[in-house]
Queue: 2 jobs
Job 1
Amino acid sequence: MKIGVVTVPLYAKTLPEALRYLKKIGVDAAEVGAGGFPGDKFCNPKELLGNKQKLRAFKALFSDCGIELNALSCHRNPVHPNKEIALKSHEEFVDTVHLAEELGIKKVITFSGCPGDSPTSQYPNWVTCPWPEDFLEVLDYQWNDCLLPYWQKAGQIASESGVRVALEMHPGFCVYNTASMLRIRKEIGNVMGANLDPSHLIWQGNDIVASIRELKDAIYHFHAKDCRIDALNTGRKGALDTVAYSEEAERSWQFCTIGYGHGQEFWKNVVAALRIAGYDDVLSIEHEDGLMSEKEGLEKAVLFLKDVIIREDPSQMWWA
């Protein structure tokens, strides 16, 4: 396994500065935004695809800095009921897939998306309960009329490019937990897998080790991000929370630097479960802790992971 970083918090730097910094603090790999919510500050697919010289220079920069370019991310909503938003999301996804193919990267991180509740909707509608029965009708429309038809075509584009799609299971979108992840994988095929970010599952009540065991080889990427549950706020209002992320004192839960929501025993069990499931790739630190600067959050996360990560291939051990 390797330690990686989602490079968004480093956008104040140039890409060479960011990569040199990551190497200095002990990072092995980078996940780079190529559009959508991560933005394209470090990586503009249209620019790179249209200029072979820039593409070669971009690729060489990672090699020169000793950082593996492990994944491209492009998070948006390709099934948004607003057709302009949906089209932009789709175009960014396709460009990111084609760039990944050119760079020899085997995975693109994104969201499944979430449609509205009907063809005339203007906003996404995330369904979280089965009653009244209207909600089940909405789910049927979302999955069978929107989500599956879209990903059957988009998944084919990725498959033809030799790229796998790692869907981040994220509340607010149709794929948000292990059950919905395995459903879309069953319908679309193995081109679809999971970007497992524990922070989005913890507050939903998931046991992360149990989730890893259920997903098994469907795990294509992993975000190393923690979640701290505020027991008092959760006790008085529950886990579903629309309070702004910046209002930490009022929230039921907060994203936090790995190790600040759960300790070493928890994360060692998670890493061991990943190893058992056959995942031997990057643990990509995503810094979204509102209480720490980018520097402090990233550096503390790297130090924490160094103590819990399993680096060596067990097949090379003396007992194998």
Job 2
Amino acid sequence: MRVSLIDIQNKLAGLNDLADEKEREQKAVEIDGDLQRHKELAHDIIMENPRSTAAYFALYQQIGGRYIFSPFVQEDYPYWAAVATAYHAYMPQYDRSKNIYNFVLDALKEKQNAQKQAALSELMNSDEARGYIDIALPDRYGNEVRLSDYEGQVVLIDFSAYEAQESIDYTFALRDLYNKYHGRGLEIYQVSLDRNKLQWEAATENIPWVCVRDEDGPATRYVNLYNVTQLPTTFLMDKEGNIIARNLKFGELDKKIGELVR
């Protein structure tokens, strides 16, 4: 495999010596083919024994100062993940294990952040006239309540569950916001992900804001549409129907709502 890499490097270095543009293009295509065959060979070595030294060094090979395999590239990520997992499981104190594990972890975090930002961007730039995805679910009395019913108001969209251990403190914090700003135009549209309907009905008996629930619980399609990955998750929507913030801390949320309801 090392011979294959040296051959590719020599061909790449020779590109600058070719004066004819067409010849350079042909040689570049040839190099791309060689590189793909080299990666296929490396794939086999990595997956055959991901905790081998050969697998480790296969990932760290470079051409022109750039990694042949990158954990930041989707099709390469599984190979990095396989080696990182194997090294971390069998040799956790080994420096190489720590290096590759942290490298892959950084790539995973970047990927997750990019996915969240893309989902939020898609949500905030919906093809619909409004800047949010409408929700239509039944309240505790079985009446369908739509998020779009509250256009023109500042709305805190809240995905949470009363069965969660911290729900009492969280509910008191929501109530403080509601009591402070409801008279000035704030509405809370709460989507409950409680699995037990009776428990949810009992918990929401004296809740003054809108609380709806889907029979599918955490599997409701709105969880995916809003890219909800943890509970609670909140979105703040202005009077024009634009989602302007996600998961603000309560202090920041209080301040921002105060600005919007003026």
